[in-house]
Amino acid sequence: MLKANNRIKSKGHLKFVSKYKCALDEFADFECNGVIQSHHLLKPYDGQSISYVHVFFEWDQESDAIMYNIQLSASSSFTNNLLDMNTSKLIHIYKDDINWNDTYYWRVRSIYDNEDLGYGDWIDQSSFSTGGTSFQNINVNIYDGDLLEDGYVAISGFAPELASIIIDKQGNEMMGILNSC
């Protein structure tokens, strides 16, 4: 893979890279923020720092796979997994046990259609980390939880800073963005 003048050339495909986007090639690895990434585990990409604790996982489809096994752990050796599940989908949203300021590891393998549902090799392994909460001193009082629908509440403000926060029904910060003007 060659990188020159904000372009990546790989296997005859030329992709442009902007400050905020990663270049992808359907048959090759890709580069994002100066780091070569595996094309099979898409989100979160390896080494990514995220600002939310409900994590969207996405990976590429493998030929002949009928299902996938996804594992998530706080350990690179995958002891005491937070998640170990089989799914027929190429995405999964994990909403439990992700903490702020921690590092997590995830991997996916194919499951093939044979008599004993044979597992394939691990497609790849990636890691990601969560940053700190954006709003350290937030205090949420919920007076009548029955009036809240299931899901999340988004709050934003404009002064003295641009700020947005998403909280769950219990008042826990799920995502926060704080931008100075």
Give a brief rundown of this model:
This protein is mainly β and 181 residues long. The chain has no helices and 16 strands.
Write up this protein.
By secondary structure, the chain is mainly beta. 0% of the residues lie in helices and 49% in strands. The strands form five sheets. The protein has a five-stranded mixed beta sheet, with no helix packed on it. β2 and β3 form a beta hairpin. The chain is elongated. The N terminus is likely disordered.
Helix-strand layout with pairing:
Elements: E1 2-4, E2 7-10, E3 13-16, E4 30-32, E5 35-37, E6 41-43, E7 48-50, E8 55-59, E9 65-73, E10 83-87, E11 91-94, E12 103-112, E13 119-130, E14 152-157, E15 162-168, E16 173-179
Parallel strand pairs: 7-13
Antiparallel strand pairs: 1-2, 2-3, 4-5, 6-8, 8-11, 9-10, 9-12, 12-13, 14-15, 15-16
Notable characteristics:
about 180 residues, mainly beta, five-stranded mixed β-sheet, three-stranded antiparallel β-sheet, 16 strands, about 50% strand, disordered N terminus
The fraction of residues assigned to DSSP E strands is: over 45%
Figure out the total of helices. 0
Taking strands numbered 1, 2, ... along the chain, how are they ordered across the largest sheet? Answer: 7-13-12-9-10
Strands, total number: 16
